[in-house]
Amino acid sequence: MKLNIAVLPGDGIGPEIMPQAIHVLDAIAKKFGHEFVYHEAICGAHAIDVCGDPFPDDTFKTCMDADAVLFAAVGDPRFDNDPTLKVRPETGLLAMRKKLGLFANVRPVATFDCLLHMSPLKESIIKGADFMVIRELTGGMYFGEKYQDNDRAYDTDVYSRPEIERILKVAFETAQRRNHHLTVVDKANVLASSRLWRQIAKEMEPQYPDVQTDYMFIDNCSMRVLTDPRFFDVIVTENTFGDILTDETSAITGSMGLQPSASLGDHTPLFEPVHGSWPQAAGKNLANPLAQILSAAMMLEHFGLKAEGALIREACNESLLQNIRTPEIQVEGGNHYGTTEVGQWITNYVAS
Amino acid sequence: MKLNIAVLPGDGIGPEIMPQAIHVLDAIAKKFGHEFVYHEAICGAHAIDVCGDPFPDDTFKTCMDADAVLFAAVGDPRFDNDPTLKVRPETGLLAMRKKLGLFANVRPVATFDCLLHMSPLKESIIKGADFMVIRELTGGMYFGEKYQDNDRAYDTDVYSRPEIERILKVAFETAQRRNHHLTVVDKANVLASSRLWRQIAKEMEPQYPDVQTDYMFIDNCSMRVLTDPRFFDVIVTENTFGDILTDETSAITGSMGLQPSASLGDHTPLFEPVHGSWPQAAGKNLANPLAQILSAAMMLEHFGLKAEGALIREACNESLLQNIRTPEIQVEGGNHYGTTEVGQWITNYVAS
Ligand SMILES: CC(C)[C@H](C(=O)O)[C@@H](O)C(=O)O
Ligand SMILES: CC(C)[C@H](C(=O)O)[C@@H](O)C(=O)O
């Protein structure tokens, strides 16, 4: 298979972890006879420095022309103290999502047995949890009409039927491919937009008779993922609730640095680690490349390359088991491995 | 001191736990020479059955005429399947908050050492956590303009300067009375309303030089309360974020059934357990009365009755230590105590 991959390393640790994912992809290409062509493009703070725009048109074009986008992270402390700045790395992120029509953010919440002890949750609660959170990514308060003056401000949490239908379709279908259990999370006891979500979900339910669908309020869900995470198979929710919930659910795995995600939509799909740009670690060969490498695995699986994805996952698992780990997850007395060493080890494993 | 107390038992277990709080209050009145006069009023599903209105005018008047409201909970499964019904117990709750001007919901997040093992979090993380979440309760998406038809729906997350100033004032002052650390939680990197919150908080900061103020995005906060709950002293946030966050933070204590809360505002202050109406347990003498009793303690403390509040807290602690506990927290092999037995024990302790 030939894949044109737009490569967006972004800021912070991005330029360090991205090459590791590329090395792994190259090893896969060689082993399985694929051709992966990389098209690097700038974004985030880096792009603001270069051209004043965190998601420049050139980058947009590179993404649109590619089969997939492999993205790392954006964000820079220089822009952090003033969230009111008009041009910030994060505005580029939102522009990227909107322009690429990436309406479905898919985050597997999976644990690694050998890292369970790092979860803030008790092992008896988190062990075996394995679910997927699907967050709507291009609607709701993020993109609704906004207003702000010195005395009053508002945001509009707006959703249209087609926006809701297409994300619920992704969710129902994901549940069909998994354990046939979908939890629609909303605040239908208070919000009109949630009521429309719930109405449409109920209309669609009969089309998916093999999926057991239930409904949960977001406040209740924020507790339930802590007390009973194994209850869940697929969760779907709107943009703002999803923002909060996905961060909460990645924290409970104990291995935030290992969680990949996919954003799917109208055009080119995008794959990225759940973690941020961790600017404090940039340039220090400290960052864990696994979430980036696993994002590449998700990308291959998206194109049906199951064996290729499985091999990358196996390599990552093996690296953990053999304690080839970056410092934040290294066991006591374990050797020191940096970003490049872990990447190299996984690449070798895949190649061998 | 004479206190006129509006008593709203509401639905489910409310009518069972409320009398226990009253018994305790009576014992306090006798011991300390106070006069507590109770004015019972209906609300919730119960009130819908009686007069079709979950927060009737008579109840409103009873609350307005009282010095404090002691409330239990509302909610009934008969209304749960259809959150689109116009008249539901929850609409009464929202009407109550709005009409009584209860703009500040104050939830202490405190742990009980002897119940720490029930927390979903590891003891090493949750032990010693002791903070306060202050949730704005009468603004934001709950009360902003709403619209819904078959194809489109929206809610408006709107805040005005006075609404923000008054809740931040409560938060800064609470931090002054506690450990002088305030965390303002928002989504200022995306929402205009959050940016106004942040702007106003920064304007007010200089008036509280003894408070260390920091700012955190809600998604980050939803992780941080799990990984580092001891970081927090006072958190303040808007209505919807607060709804999610307070449920998350009460889940981590491991003793949801023991958490009281206060809602303060323009008129009569209200005190209520954090837990809901637990309809499945109604009439079974199973429900834990401690959150209701501790809500009464918060009420007394609100009126400066420190020793009285402290005695109730001591009695509750003692009951836990001596395993005088309702079934959901009883230790293995412990005796069976129902709602009334636990209430009676605490009342006796206070009286003796
Ligand atoms: C950086 C921010 C705008 C973004 C969001 O809120 O969507 C981030 O929190 C995320 O979840 O990807
Ligand atoms: C019942 C519901 C309307 C209410 C809310 O969302 O405020 C509840 O969840 C709460 O937190 O008191």
Please give a structural write-up.
With 352 residues, chain A is of the alpha/beta class. Chain A folds into 2 domains: 1-100 and 267-352, Isopropylmalate Dehydrogenase (3-Layer(aba) Sandwich), CATH 3.40.718; 105-146 and 156-258, Isopropylmalate Dehydrogenase, CATH 3.40.718. Chain A contains 12 helices and 12 strands. In chain A, the strands form 2 sheets. A 10-stranded mixed sheet of chain A has the order 2-1-3-12-11-4-5-10-8-9, sandwiched between helices. A two-stranded antiparallel sheet of chain A has the order 6-7. The longest helix of chain A is centred in the first third of the chain and has 19 residues, at 14-32. In chain A, 56% of the residues are buried. The mean pLDDT of chain A is 96. Chains A and B meet through β6, β7, α7, α8 and α9 of A and β6, β7, α7, α8 and α9 of B. β7 of chain A pairs antiparallel with β7 (152-160) of chain B, so a sheet runs across the interface. The complex binds 3-isopropylmalic acid (2 copies).
CATH H-level superfamily title of the largest domain in chain A: Isopropylmalate Dehydrogenase
Q: Could you tell me the number of beta strands of chain A? A: 12
Number of domains of chain A: 2
- Helix/strand order of chain A: EHEHHEHEHEEEHEHEHEHEEHHH
User: How would you describe the shape of chain A?
Assistant: globular
Oligomer: homodimer
The CATH class of the largest domain in chain A: Alpha Beta
In the CATH hierarchy, the third-tier topology of the largest domain in chain A is known as Isopropylmalate Dehydrogenase
Rg from Cα of chain A: 20 Å
- Classify the secondary structure makeup of chain A into a structural class: alpha/beta
Pathway (chains A, B): Amino-acid biosynthesis; L-leucine biosynthesis; L-leucine from 3-methyl-2-oxobutanoate: step 3/4
Subunit structure (chains A, B): Homodimer.
Binding site for substrate (chains A, B): 97, 107, 135, 219
Main location (chains A, B): cytoplasm
